[in-house]
Amino acid sequence: EKRNMLQDExxxxxxxxxxxxxxxxxxCEKYYALNNLME
Amino acid sequence: MDQYSSSLVDTSLDLTIGxxxxxxxxxxxxxxxxxxxxxxxxxNKKLSEMLTLMCDNYNVLRKQLMEYVNKSNITExxxxxxxxxxxSPAREDAFSCAVIGGVSESSSxxxxxxxxxxxxxxxxxxEKVSRVYYKTEASDTTLVVKDGYQWRKYGQKVTRDNPSPRxxxxxACAPSCSVKKKVQRSVExxxxxxATYEGEHNHPMPSQIDSxxxxxxxxxxxxxxxxxxxxxxxxxxxxxxxxxxxxxxxKVTSPTSRIDFPQVQKLLVEQMASSLTKDPNxxxxxxxxxxxxxxxxxxxxx
Lengths: 39, 302
Fold this sequence. Notes:
The complex is a heterodimer of chains A (about 40) and B (about 300). By secondary structure, chain A is mostly helical. Chain A has one helix spanning about 1-39. Helix content of chain A is about 95%, strand content about 0%. Chain A is rod-shaped, with a radius of gyration of 17 Å. The N and C termini of chain A lie far apart (about 55 Å). The relative contact order of chain A is 0.09. Chain B is about 50% helix and about 10% strand. Chain B is built from ten helices and six strands; from the N terminus they run H-H-H-H-H-E-E-E-E-E-H-E-H-H-H-H. In chain B, about 10% of the residues are buried. The interface of A and B includes residues 7 and 30 of A. Chain B: This is Probable WRKY transcription factor 40. Chain B: Its main location: nucleus.
C-alpha cells in the first residue's frame, strides 16, 4: 500500500513536471520572440 | 543397491526458490520508489524556479517594450493625429496573462493623459483663431487672399449659411507649420473675403518682394472676431493697411469705396503741394527762409 502511494505521488509529480516543461518552453519562445523584436 | 540408492537421490529442480527471487526483483523496493520521488520532486522544483525566472525576464522585457511603444505613440500623437486604437486586451495571449501574472497595464491613464493633452491643444487652437477681412475687386471671384504667406489649397466646400464656397488652405512656407485658413466671401458684402486663421506661424514671413503691390487690403473687423494676433501679424506688412468699420462699409457701396489707397495718398500730396505753392504768404516765407539760410552760410564762410 505504501508503494502504491509512492507510485501515485511519483506519477503526479511527473505529470506536473511535464506541464511545467511545456510552460517553460512557451515562455522561452515568447521571451526570445520579444527579444528579437526589441533588437 | 547403488542403483536403488542412486534412485533416491533428490532430483527436484528447486524451482520455487527461483520464482521467489524473480518476484522480489519485479517489485522495486520502497526505498527505490522514495528515491524516484525525490528525484522527480527535485526536478519539479528546478523547473518551477526556471519558469519563475523566465517569467520575470519576460515581464521586464515586455514592460520595456510597452514603454517604448507608448513613447512612440505619444510622439506620433503630438506630431500628427489622434492615436491608433490600443491593442485590445482580448488579443493578449491568455497564457501570458495567466502564467506571467503580469498586471496588464491600464490604458485608462494613458487615455486620460491623451484627452487632457487634446483638450489643451484644442484650447490653444481656439485662442489663436483669428478672422481677417480682405477687400477685393468686385469682379474678382477667386478665393485667393494675398497675405504674404504661401498657402496650399486642400479643399473647398459649400456651406449652408453662405452661398459662396469656402476654401481651405494650409501654410506651405514650412512643412512643420500647422497654420490653416478658411476663406469665404462675406454674406453681407460679396466683395469682402473673410479669412479665418487657425494657429500661429512658426517661421518668419517669407520675402515681401512681391508683396508690396500684390497684397490684398485687409480690413480688420470692428467686432470681436478680430484679435490682436491678427492685427499684429498684419501690421508687420509694409502695405498701407486700412481699418474700416464694417458698418460703414455696408453703407458705402459706391465705387468710391474701391479707390486704390496709394492713389488717394498721391492725390492728397499733390493737392497739398499745389495749394501751398499758390499761397503767396507761403512762398514769401519760403524765400525768406532760403535767403536767410544762404546768408548765414556766406557769413560763416567769411
